[in-house]
Amino acid sequence: MENVPAAFRNRASERAMRTWTLLVLVFIYLPMVAVVLASLSKIRFFMFPVKAWSLEWYVSVLSSIEIRDYLWTSVIIATLVTVISVLLAIAGALAFARYDWKGRSIYQKLILLPIFFPQAVLGLAILLWSSAWDVSSGWELAVFAHLVWIVPVVTLVISIQVYGFDPAVEEAAFDMGASRWQVFKEITFPILWPGIFSGALFAFLLSWGNFPLSAFTTGAEQTIPEWLYAKMVAGYTPQVPALGTLTTLLAGVLLLGGYWLGTRRRK
Q1: What structural domains and CATH numbers belong to the chain?
Q2: Contact criterion met (CB below 8 Å) for 42 and 54
Q3: Predicted pLDDT of residue 53
Q4: Which of 4, 70, 176, 242 is most buried by a 10 A CB count?
């Protein structure tokens, strides 16, 4: 190996990295390609190669009042979870990573605890708690359940940005006579914005695709993941891959839109 030119070794390493990356991408996205093909097949059950193509399953999804109701429920839950979790996580991240106070170490451990609970166990615990307190299941309880699991995640995401924040910038603004609200609005919030935006995206997508917590807490109301699971277990319809493809495209649009907004803000 010592006689092999360094340039050749670098090219070989780069080629190996590209090959490995391609294999990983194929492994991750090949099942999604199968879902897209199934949604475009005219027959009810997926067969490969596809013999007849059709968009009728997409038409039926977009015209279904039932799916529209489930979609609206999912949007309400995900939006509320995003807004509330970001507001709580901003204060939580500052307490987690910025200020030194008594009990901070215990707080840092407790805020991480819900992440390590299996979501099904957490959902069952919340269901038992709500039953003991005579709280009826519904989308409101689902919002609470999602927040228990998602707020710690968003807090960690924003904390990463807080760790790289120099407090001297705020102190300089205070010395120049700025109020606490002006400092937060003009300095703290803009500096933390990349972490806040990333946390909001995480919150929305994690809530949108969450099945275990929703299954235990929504009651008679259903979300899109619950509907997809119910149809996969019994009464399968090609609407399942069609709706799965549409929701995946929505998630991709949100991620690409977030990346585009992030690059524009940096400029």
Answers
A1: 1-54 (no CATH), 56-266 (1.10.3720.10)
A2: yes
A3: 78
A4: 242
For 225-228, the CB contacts below 8 A with 24+ separation are: 225/74, 226/70, 227/67, 227/70
pLDDT of 85 above 90: yes
Distance CA 110, CA 200 (A): 22
Each residue of 52-64: pLDDT tens digit? 777 888 888 888 8
Measure the CA–CA gap between 110 and 112, rounded to whole angstroms.
Answer: 5
CA distance 251 to 9: 39
Can you tell me the distance from the alpha carbon of 193 to that of 184, in angstroms, rounded to the nearest whole number? 11
**HEC profile of 112-176:** HHHHHCCHHHHHHHHHHHHHHCCCCCCHHHHHHHHHHHHHHHHHHHHHHHHHCCCHHHHHHHHHC
Distances (CA, A) of 92 to 48, 99, 128, 193, 198: 50, 11, 27, 15, 16
Query: Do the beta carbons of residue 81 and residue 146 sit within 8 Å?
Result: yes
Instruction: Say if residues 244 and 39 touch (Cβ distance below 8 Å).
Output: yes
